[in-house]
Design goal:
By secondary structure, this protein is an alpha+beta fold. It folds into 3 domains: about 110 residues, Butyryl-Coa Dehydrogenase, subunit A, domain 1; about 110 residues, Butyryl-CoA Dehydrogenase, subunit A, domain 2 (Beta Barrel), CATH 2.40.110.10; about 150 residues, Butyryl-CoA Dehydrogenase, subunit A, domain 3 (Up-down Bundle). The chain has a 4-stranded mixed beta sheet with strand order 1-4-5-8. A hairpin with an 8-residue loop joins strand 4 and strand 5. Helix 4 runs antiparallel to helix 6 and helix 6 runs antiparallel to helix 9. The protein is globular and about 80 Å long. The chain binds flavin-adenine dinucleotide.
């Protein structure tokens, strides 16, 4: 058992950390004001290989491992946790779209890998979030098209995405009636409404409304009725990626707090020499590290094609929680300064909390662990 990065993985981590420090960190607060994120930044992420990790080289992708995706999330998360949304949506979108028909793959995958086009994932609806198998959006076959109708809620990148990997009902009730589609968002009948988010504002979260949108029939991904299975498989790896993005933000916060505790003096000595301070940091470093290795373990299982649903749910619950608690402690340990908008700590905390909800709440993650550990008959999810 080897729990260290290979030289190639370490070099990738170093390049990500450099980019996060030089390009992302200085402008982290800027995107909190609601400024539009420049496409140029996406192309930079593409050049680093980030947007093409789940896309095969024959479609222009960088074809990385899932562990590498985790490394990218953790290191970029140190600079701007929200920038990892492009990694996430293109990982999920790419891994689902790979089941599309050849001409659709040729049309979309190279553009997603190169950062020329942005994908979002549209599953949640106003009436169905945790219970995703209860979605109501419908896709009705009409000759050479599907006609899509419905509303998707709380979609990351709703304000800027070019295409949605979208889920709609083609059959009866339940998971088996759900299909996945590539839906270009410039088609007639698509409209967008942006939310006023408490954090993660770079992501321009909002709703997407589809009013009788005619999508070419070849934009169905895989078989009719296969959509739910495809998205749940993608959620499994993305849960570890979300955890690592949050943990990266926490690690950066702890590093900054260690430095502050060395400099700031109270009662005649540095904060770092008060055990009430240094022990807290030691505890958070330990919990963050434990969650981090659980997430990498999950991604290593995925790289080996081994089952990892239980580990994914564990780290999606534990990672953002450990990160939020660590950042909260960092705010308190900075005193009044920690609560100031000039420091990034408050923004990181707001951003991490959104990630506790996205891709499945803590309650749903625990219900998945229960299902995996106890058996389906004991889980509210079945
Ligand atoms: C920042 C952010 C980004 C997001 N991005 C996307 C995106 O890109 N695409 C997308 O499709 N969706 C996205 N979402 C939506 C997200 O996946 C849902 O919000 C999430 O799955 C929860 O669904 P809900 O909000 O409808 O809550 P509900 O399902 O209404 O749940 C409400 C509360 O009840 C709890 N609960 C529900 N059922 C149970 C149960 N059986 N047992 C115990 N507790 C339960 C939940 O844990 C939660 O606390 C995003 C959300 C956020 C916050």
């Amino acid at each position: 058992m080897d729990l260290t990065f290979s030289p190639e993985e370490q070099a990738f981590a170093d390049s990500m950390r450099r980019y996060a420090r030089e390009r992302l960190m200085p402008e982290y607060a800027k995107w909190d004001q609601g400024n539009s994120y420049p496409r140029e930044r996406l192309r930079e992420l593409a050049q680093l290989g980030v947007t093409g990790l789940a896309i095969p080289a024959e479609y222009g992708g960088s074809e990385g491992t899932f562990v590498m995706a985790g490394i990218a999330a953790e290191e970029l998360g140190r600079g701007d946790i929200n920038a990892t949304v492009f990694l996430q949506t293109h990982m999920i979108g790419g891994s689902i779209a790979i089941h599309a028909q050849e001409q659709v793959k040729r049309q979309w995958l190279p553009a997603l890998a190169s950062g020329e086009r942005i994908a979002c994932l549209a599953l949640t609806e106003p009436g169905a979030g945790s219970d995703a198998a209860a979605i109501a959006a419908s896709a009705r076959r009409d000759g050479a098209h599907y006609v899509i109708r419905g509303e998707k809620a709380s979609i990351s990148l709703a304000g800027m995405a070019d295409v949605a990997v979208m889920f709609a009902r083609t059959g009866g009730p339940g998971a088996r009636g759900i299909s996945a589609f590539m839906v270009p968002l410039d088609l007639p009948g698509v409209s967008r409404n942006l939310y006023r988010s408490a954090g993660g504002r770079l992501m321009q979260r909002g709703s997407l409304v589809f009013e009788d949108v005619r999508v070419p029939a070849d934009h169905l991904i895989g078989e009719e009725g296969g959509g739910f299975h495809q998205v749940m498989e993608a959620f499994d790896f993305n849960r570890a990626i979300i955890a690592l993005a949050c943990l990266g933000a926490a690690e950066q916060s702890l590093d900054e707090t260690i430095e502050y505790a060395r400099q700031r003096r109270t009662f005649g000595k540095p904060l770092a020499l008060h055990e009430g301070v240094s022990f807290q940091i030691a505890e958070h470093l330990t919990l963050v590290s434990a969650a981090r290795w659980l997430a990498y373990h999950c991604l290593a299982l995925r790289d080996r094609d081994q089952r990892h649903t239980r580990e994914a749910a564990m780290c999606k619950w534990m990672g953002p929680k450990a990160a939020a608690e660590a950042i909260h402690a960092c705010i308190i340990l900075h005193g009044w300064l920690g609560y100031d908008m000039d420091l990034p700590l408050q923004q990181r905390l707001r951003d991490v909390v959104g990630n506790e909800i996205a891709d499945g709440t803590p309650e749903i993650m625990k219900a998945i662990v229960v299902r995996e550990a106890f058996g389906r008959e004991y889980s509210p999810l079945r």
